[in-house]
Amino acid sequence: MIEQDSSKKEPAVDELIETPWTDDAIRWPDDLAKKVQSDDDDDEEETGFMDPFKDPDPFQIFSFHFQNPFEKDDTIDVTIRGYKSEADEIWQSTGLTLWRASEFLCEFQLENAEMFQGKRVLELGAGLGLNGILLWKMGICSTVCITDGDTQALVHIRENIKTNHNEIDENSISSLCSCHQLIWGKETSVRFLKHIAGGKSFDALIASDIIYTECIIQPLWETVKTLLSRPDGVFVMAFARRRVPISIDFVLESATKNGFEYDMVREDKEEGIW
Fold first, then answer.
1. What is the CA 116 to chain-centroid distance, rounded?
2. Which tens digits make up the pLDDT trace of 227-262?
3. Is 101 left (phi over 0), alpha (psi -120 to 50) or beta?
4. Which residues are CB-neighbours of 193 under 8 A, at least 6 positions away?
Protein backbone atom coordinates (compact mmCIF):
# COMPACT_ATOMS: atom_id res chain seq x y z
CA MET A 1 0.00 0.00 0.00
CA ILE A 2 1.56 3.31 -1.04
CA GLU A 3 0.23 6.57 0.27
CA GLN A 4 1.06 10.24 -0.31
CA ASP A 5 2.84 12.81 2.58
CA SER A 6 -26.16 4.68 -7.34
CA SER A 7 -28.29 3.67 -9.27
CA LYS A 8 -27.71 1.19 -12.08
CA LYS A 9 -26.17 3.15 -14.95
CA GLU A 10 -24.36 2.36 -18.17
CA PRO A 11 -20.61 3.07 -18.14
CA ALA A 12 -19.59 6.58 -19.11
CA VAL A 13 -18.08 7.40 -22.51
CA ASP A 14 -14.88 9.43 -22.93
CA GLU A 15 -15.21 13.02 -24.02
CA LEU A 16 -11.57 12.97 -25.15
CA ILE A 17 -10.49 11.22 -28.32
CA GLU A 18 -8.64 8.03 -27.51
CA THR A 19 -5.15 7.41 -28.83
CA PRO A 20 -4.57 4.07 -30.61
CA TRP A 21 -1.91 2.38 -28.48
CA THR A 22 -0.91 -1.10 -27.34
CA ASP A 23 1.65 -1.86 -24.66
CA ASP A 24 4.05 -3.71 -26.94
CA ALA A 25 5.22 -0.21 -27.89
CA ILE A 26 7.10 -0.02 -24.58
CA ARG A 27 7.78 -3.69 -23.86
CA TRP A 28 9.87 -4.51 -26.92
CA PRO A 29 12.88 -2.77 -28.48
CA ASP A 30 11.87 -0.80 -31.58
CA ASP A 31 13.60 -3.16 -34.00
CA LEU A 32 11.99 -6.26 -32.47
CA ALA A 33 8.55 -4.65 -32.34
CA LYS A 34 8.81 -3.73 -36.00
CA LYS A 35 9.90 -7.26 -36.90
CA VAL A 36 6.99 -8.83 -35.01
CA GLN A 37 4.55 -6.43 -36.65
CA SER A 38 6.11 -7.10 -40.07
CA ASP A 39 5.82 -10.85 -39.55
CA ASP A 40 2.17 -10.46 -38.57
CA ASP A 41 1.48 -8.34 -41.66
CA ASP A 42 3.20 -10.90 -43.90
CA ASP A 43 1.08 -13.68 -42.44
CA GLU A 44 -2.08 -11.70 -43.10
CA GLU A 45 -1.07 -11.09 -46.70
CA GLU A 46 -0.50 -14.78 -47.41
CA THR A 47 -3.54 -16.50 -48.84
CA GLY A 48 -4.51 -20.06 -48.09
CA PHE A 49 -2.11 -20.23 -45.14
CA MET A 50 -3.28 -21.73 -41.85
CA ASP A 51 -1.15 -21.95 -38.73
CA PRO A 52 -1.63 -25.53 -37.47
CA PHE A 53 -0.50 -24.52 -33.97
CA LYS A 54 -2.82 -21.52 -33.55
CA ASP A 55 -5.52 -22.02 -30.94
CA PRO A 56 -8.90 -21.91 -32.72
CA ASP A 57 -10.46 -20.57 -29.52
CA PRO A 58 -7.96 -18.29 -27.73
CA PHE A 59 -10.59 -16.77 -25.43
CA GLN A 60 -11.18 -17.67 -21.80
CA ILE A 61 -13.99 -16.93 -19.36
CA PHE A 62 -12.79 -16.27 -15.81
CA SER A 63 -15.58 -16.76 -13.27
CA PHE A 64 -15.25 -15.65 -9.64
CA HIS A 65 -17.53 -16.11 -6.65
CA PHE A 66 -16.25 -13.89 -3.85
CA GLN A 67 -17.60 -14.00 -0.31
CA ASN A 68 -19.42 -10.74 0.41
CA PRO A 69 -17.55 -9.15 3.37
CA PHE A 70 -20.79 -7.61 4.64
CA GLU A 71 -23.19 -10.51 4.08
CA LYS A 72 -22.05 -13.96 5.21
CA ASP A 73 -24.63 -15.77 3.12
CA ASP A 74 -24.03 -13.72 -0.02
CA THR A 75 -21.47 -13.95 -2.81
CA ILE A 76 -20.26 -11.36 -5.28
CA ASP A 77 -20.10 -12.97 -8.71
CA VAL A 78 -17.77 -11.48 -11.32
CA THR A 79 -17.45 -12.74 -14.90
CA ILE A 80 -14.43 -11.65 -16.93
CA ARG A 81 -13.80 -12.48 -20.59
CA GLY A 82 -10.31 -12.27 -22.00
CA TYR A 83 -7.62 -14.37 -23.62
CA LYS A 84 -5.76 -17.43 -22.40
CA SER A 85 -2.34 -16.50 -21.04
CA GLU A 86 -0.58 -18.37 -23.87
CA ALA A 87 -2.62 -16.71 -26.65
CA ASP A 88 -0.74 -14.86 -29.39
CA GLU A 89 -2.69 -11.68 -28.62
CA ILE A 90 -0.91 -11.36 -25.26
CA TRP A 91 2.36 -10.58 -27.07
CA GLN A 92 0.84 -7.29 -28.18
CA SER A 93 -1.32 -6.45 -25.16
CA THR A 94 -0.36 -8.12 -21.87
CA GLY A 95 -3.54 -6.87 -20.20
CA LEU A 96 -5.80 -9.12 -22.25
CA THR A 97 -5.48 -11.97 -19.76
CA LEU A 98 -5.47 -12.22 -15.96
CA TRP A 99 -2.24 -12.37 -13.97
CA ARG A 100 -1.59 -13.62 -10.43
CA ALA A 101 -1.44 -10.27 -8.66
CA SER A 102 -4.97 -9.30 -9.72
CA GLU A 103 -6.49 -12.09 -7.64
CA PHE A 104 -4.12 -11.22 -4.79
CA LEU A 105 -5.45 -7.65 -4.90
CA CYS A 106 -9.06 -8.92 -4.96
CA GLU A 107 -8.40 -10.70 -1.67
CA PHE A 108 -6.99 -7.50 -0.18
CA GLN A 109 -10.00 -5.46 -1.34
CA LEU A 110 -12.41 -7.88 0.31
CA GLU A 111 -10.41 -8.08 3.55
CA ASN A 112 -10.07 -4.29 3.73
CA ALA A 113 -13.44 -3.22 2.34
CA GLU A 114 -13.79 -0.38 4.85
CA MET A 115 -10.78 1.31 3.23
CA PHE A 116 -12.83 1.90 0.08
CA GLN A 117 -16.22 2.67 1.61
CA GLY A 118 -17.67 5.89 0.22
CA LYS A 119 -14.46 6.63 -1.70
CA ARG A 120 -13.71 7.75 -5.21
CA VAL A 121 -11.49 4.97 -6.61
CA LEU A 122 -9.52 4.72 -9.85
CA GLU A 123 -7.86 1.59 -11.21
CA LEU A 124 -4.64 2.06 -13.19
CA GLY A 125 -3.58 -0.35 -15.96
CA ALA A 126 -6.74 -2.36 -15.41
CA GLY A 127 -6.24 -4.91 -18.21
CA LEU A 128 -9.55 -6.79 -18.18
CA GLY A 129 -10.91 -4.74 -15.27
CA LEU A 130 -11.26 -7.45 -12.60
CA ASN A 131 -10.28 -5.37 -9.58
CA GLY A 132 -12.29 -2.30 -10.50
CA ILE A 133 -15.36 -4.37 -11.40
CA LEU A 134 -15.16 -6.21 -8.07
CA LEU A 135 -15.06 -2.92 -6.16
CA TRP A 136 -18.01 -1.66 -8.18
CA LYS A 137 -20.05 -4.79 -7.49
CA MET A 138 -19.18 -4.60 -3.79
CA GLY A 139 -21.33 -1.47 -3.89
CA ILE A 140 -19.31 0.47 -1.33
CA CYS A 141 -17.51 3.14 -3.40
CA SER A 142 -19.07 6.40 -4.47
CA THR A 143 -17.28 6.16 -7.83
CA VAL A 144 -15.17 3.53 -9.58
CA CYS A 145 -13.17 4.66 -12.62
CA ILE A 146 -11.44 1.86 -14.53
CA THR A 147 -8.58 2.90 -16.82
CA ASP A 148 -5.94 1.52 -19.15
CA GLY A 149 -3.78 3.04 -21.85
CA ASP A 150 -4.06 0.06 -24.20
CA THR A 151 -6.93 0.47 -26.66
CA GLN A 152 -7.40 -3.29 -27.01
CA ALA A 153 -7.71 -3.64 -23.25
CA LEU A 154 -10.32 -0.86 -23.16
CA VAL A 155 -12.52 -2.81 -25.56
CA HIS A 156 -12.49 -5.80 -23.22
CA ILE A 157 -12.95 -3.73 -20.06
CA ARG A 158 -16.08 -2.13 -21.49
CA GLU A 159 -17.49 -5.47 -22.54
CA ASN A 160 -16.76 -6.89 -19.09
CA ILE A 161 -18.47 -3.95 -17.41
CA LYS A 162 -21.54 -4.49 -19.59
CA THR A 163 -21.57 -8.23 -18.83
CA ASN A 164 -21.43 -7.65 -15.09
CA HIS A 165 -23.86 -4.74 -15.35
CA ASN A 166 -26.42 -7.11 -16.84
CA GLU A 167 -25.91 -9.55 -13.96
CA ILE A 168 -26.63 -7.16 -11.08
CA ASP A 169 -29.82 -6.34 -9.25
CA GLU A 170 -30.87 -2.81 -10.16
CA ASN A 171 -31.20 -1.83 -6.50
CA SER A 172 -28.10 -3.57 -5.19
CA ILE A 173 -25.37 -1.30 -6.57
CA SER A 174 -25.05 2.37 -5.68
CA SER A 175 -21.54 2.94 -7.07
CA LEU A 176 -21.02 4.66 -10.39
CA CYS A 177 -18.68 2.87 -12.78
CA SER A 178 -16.90 4.27 -15.85
CA CYS A 179 -14.08 3.25 -18.19
CA HIS A 180 -11.58 5.63 -19.80
CA GLN A 181 -8.21 5.65 -21.49
CA LEU A 182 -5.36 6.91 -19.35
CA ILE A 183 -1.81 6.89 -20.68
CA TRP A 184 0.55 7.62 -17.80
CA GLY A 185 2.52 10.85 -17.49
CA LYS A 186 2.04 14.31 -16.02
CA GLU A 187 0.53 16.05 -19.06
CA THR A 188 -1.89 13.25 -19.93
CA SER A 189 -2.93 12.91 -16.29
CA VAL A 190 -3.59 16.64 -15.95
CA ARG A 191 -5.87 16.46 -19.00
CA PHE A 192 -7.57 13.39 -17.58
CA LEU A 193 -8.15 15.13 -14.26
CA LYS A 194 -9.71 18.14 -15.99
CA HIS A 195 -11.78 16.55 -18.75
CA ILE A 196 -12.68 13.11 -17.39
CA ALA A 197 -12.55 13.44 -13.60
CA GLY A 198 -14.14 16.88 -13.56
CA GLY A 199 -11.20 18.30 -11.61
CA LYS A 200 -11.83 15.93 -8.69
CA SER A 201 -8.94 13.79 -7.50
CA PHE A 202 -9.37 10.24 -6.20
CA ASP A 203 -9.30 8.98 -2.62
CA ALA A 204 -7.71 5.69 -3.64
CA LEU A 205 -5.88 4.29 -6.64
CA ILE A 206 -5.52 0.54 -7.17
CA ALA A 207 -3.38 -1.49 -9.58
CA SER A 208 -2.02 -5.00 -10.09
CA ASP A 209 0.70 -6.40 -12.35
CA ILE A 210 1.33 -3.05 -14.00
CA ILE A 211 5.14 -2.80 -13.94
CA TYR A 212 7.13 -4.79 -16.49
CA THR A 213 9.66 -2.29 -17.84
CA GLU A 214 11.68 0.51 -16.24
CA CYS A 215 10.54 3.25 -18.64
CA ILE A 216 7.00 3.31 -17.25
CA ILE A 217 7.90 3.79 -13.58
CA GLN A 218 8.46 7.57 -13.60
CA PRO A 219 5.30 8.26 -15.68
CA LEU A 220 3.41 6.06 -13.19
CA TRP A 221 4.45 8.18 -10.20
CA GLU A 222 3.66 11.37 -12.12
CA THR A 223 0.17 10.01 -12.71
CA VAL A 224 -0.28 9.01 -9.08
CA LYS A 225 0.85 12.44 -7.88
CA THR A 226 -1.61 14.14 -10.22
CA LEU A 227 -4.70 12.03 -9.54
CA LEU A 228 -4.40 11.02 -5.88
CA SER A 229 -6.02 13.20 -3.22
CA ARG A 230 -3.73 14.84 -0.69
CA PRO A 231 -2.74 14.30 2.07
CA ASP A 232 -4.78 11.17 2.80
CA GLY A 233 -4.97 9.46 -0.58
CA VAL A 234 -3.80 5.84 -0.79
CA PHE A 235 -2.36 3.87 -3.71
CA VAL A 236 -2.77 0.11 -3.29
CA MET A 237 -0.60 -1.89 -5.70
CA ALA A 238 -0.13 -5.65 -6.03
CA PHE A 239 3.17 -6.73 -7.60
CA ALA A 240 4.03 -10.24 -8.73
CA ARG A 241 7.50 -11.50 -9.55
CA ARG A 242 7.65 -12.18 -13.28
CA ARG A 243 10.33 -12.69 -15.89
CA VAL A 244 10.95 -8.97 -16.23
CA PRO A 245 14.01 -6.92 -15.23
CA ILE A 246 12.15 -5.07 -12.45
CA SER A 247 12.14 -6.06 -8.77
CA ILE A 248 9.79 -4.99 -5.98
CA ASP A 249 12.76 -3.35 -4.24
CA PHE A 250 13.43 -1.21 -7.29
CA VAL A 251 9.77 -0.13 -7.45
CA LEU A 252 9.67 0.81 -3.76
CA GLU A 253 12.94 2.70 -4.01
CA SER A 254 11.54 4.74 -6.89
CA ALA A 255 8.40 5.45 -4.85
CA THR A 256 10.51 6.85 -2.04
CA LYS A 257 12.50 9.03 -4.45
CA ASN A 258 9.21 10.46 -5.71
CA GLY A 259 8.11 11.52 -2.24
CA PHE A 260 5.90 8.59 -1.26
CA GLU A 261 5.86 6.52 1.90
CA TYR A 262 4.90 2.87 1.77
CA ASP A 263 3.79 -0.04 3.93
CA MET A 264 4.25 -3.65 2.87
CA VAL A 265 0.85 -4.75 4.11
CA ARG A 266 0.87 -8.28 2.76
CA GLU A 267 3.35 -10.55 1.02
CA ASP A 268 3.75 -14.11 -0.14
CA LYS A 269 7.44 -14.57 -0.85
CA GLU A 270 6.98 -18.18 -1.86
CA GLU A 271 4.55 -17.15 -4.59
CA GLY A 272 6.49 -13.97 -5.31
CA ILE A 273 3.58 -11.60 -4.72
CA TRP A 274 3.59 -8.35 -2.71
1. 17
2. 999 999 999 999 887 776 788 889 999 999 999 999
3. alpha
4. 199, 200, 201, 226, 227
